[in-house]
């Protein structure tokens, strides 16, 4: 039965992949991606992202578990019988063919008649905003345009699912950020389910509806970008998705008021003149500035708080420069007070 919007398009249940007899690339993944969703798989290098994608595509067979696409168990189906297409980081375009020929290539191999090939390639190039570029050769395009040709080539067969493995990895930062916005817009227009793999947390948060955070072959957390960022479930997620001040032991006791493992985002910490009293529902600690890093829109202040006779806990605060709220003449050695609301503290130990 075909799936519709909001219904599961991809379902992984207990999916494991062991290479050889001891390399556990994926240690049991349970994951559901809805129809029409833009889903990100985020994790450090070697965490099993590509292996998961290759199993969804059918290039790799799971050691255990099942994979369903559109409600149908495809675990035993070869790649060519799955309604899935993949864009790899090394998207090789044929250099001697024009852009249009590159996009038409797959259809030509499958024997799609010329007229239909032409019109579908034109439509796909339109989708990626390269309508006028059909006659050009890849060498006459920028990196971002070549990437969009690769995307058009993958979209032209109108797959139910498009898998993208670090698709923007070869682009420089500025272009990458631009392409992130475009990818999202294109996905929204075509309505195809996208699963995008990235090791870049900004990219994942910018692009996706929901994401899964992978670590060492395991899924640490699945959720909406905002939920994962605002409510990381453990230390790994708190550190990998954004940056966090992680507090445990005596530091937790002194700064949170109880033992455990806690995280506070740097943008939730205010930098105040020394001696500022805590507002209701918030906490303060006196600290000595270690470093002030100006970063254009924000300034990062690292400061050492003296707690419980310890050598000192370094806390990082990120302050918006437009708010102009920093005490004047802030520099190494300045005495300040750091403040945060009780609600900014995430308990990672539960
Ligand atoms: P990622 O894409 O997150 O960087 P991969 O899925 O490529 O991670 O790899 C996960 C783990 O599996 C790594 O330790 C990697 O070395 C191992 N691995 C991946 N493919 C193979 C393979 N074909 N043979 C043996 N080990 C592999
Ligand atoms: Mg990879």
UniProtKB/TrEMBL annotation:
PROSITE patterns: ABC_TRANSPORTER_1, ABC_TRANSPORTER_2. GO terms for molecular function: ATP binding; ATP hydrolysis activity; transmembrane transporter activity. It comes from the Bacteria. This is ABC transporter ATP-binding protein. The keyword Endoplasmic reticulum does not apply. Keywords: ATP-binding, Nucleotide-binding, Transport. Transmembrane segments: none annotated. The keyword tRNA processing does not apply. Pfam families: ABC_tran (PF00005), TOBE_2 (PF08402). GO terms for cellular component: ATP-binding cassette (ABC) transporter complex. It comes from Mycolicibacterium hodleri. Coiled coil: none annotated. Residues 10-241 form the ABC transporter domain.
């Amino acid at each position: 039965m075909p799936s519709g919007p909001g219904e599961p398009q991809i379902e992984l249940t207990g999916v494991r992949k062991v290479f050889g007899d001891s390399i556990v690339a994926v240690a049991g993944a349970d994951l559901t991606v809805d129809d029409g969703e833009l889903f990100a798989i985020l994790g450090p290098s070697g965490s099993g992202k590509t292996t998961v994608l290759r199993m969804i595509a059918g290039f790799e067979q799971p050691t255990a578990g099942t994979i369903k696409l559109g409600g149908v168990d495809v675990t035993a189906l070869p790649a060519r019988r799955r309604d899935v297409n993949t864009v790899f980081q090394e998207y090789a375009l044929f250099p001697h063919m024009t852009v249009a020929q590159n996009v038409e290539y797959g259809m030509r191999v499958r024997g799609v008649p010329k007229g239909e090939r032409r019109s579908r390639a034109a439509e796909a190039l339109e989708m990626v905003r390269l309508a006028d570029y059909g006659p050009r050769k890849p060498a006459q395009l920028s990196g971002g345009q070549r990437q969009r040709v690769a995307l058009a080539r993958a979209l032209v067969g109108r797959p139910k699912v498009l898998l993208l493995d670090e698709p923007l990895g070869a682009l420089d930062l500025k272009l990458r950020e631009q392409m992130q916005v475009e990818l999202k817009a294109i996905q929204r227009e075509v309505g195809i389910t996208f699963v995008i793999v990235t090791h870049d947390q900004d990219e994942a948060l910018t692009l996706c509806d929901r994401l899964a955070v992978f670590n060492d072959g395991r899924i640490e957390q699945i959720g909406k970008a905002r939920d994962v960022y605002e409510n990381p479930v453990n230390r790994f997620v708190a550190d990998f998705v954004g940056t966090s001040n992680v507090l445990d032991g005596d530091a937790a006791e002194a700064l949170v008021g109880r033992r455990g493992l806690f995280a506070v985002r740097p943008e939730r910490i205010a930098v105040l003149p020394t001696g500022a009293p805590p507002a209701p529902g918030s906490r303060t600690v006196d600290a000595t500035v270690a470093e002030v890093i100006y970063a254009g829109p924000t300034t990062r202040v690292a400061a050492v708080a003296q707690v419980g006779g310890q050598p000192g806990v370094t806390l990082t605060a990120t302050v918006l420069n437009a708010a102009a709220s920093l005490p004047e003449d802030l520099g190494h050695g300045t005495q300040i007070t750091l403040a945060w609301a009780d609600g900014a503290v995430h308990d990672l130990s539960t």
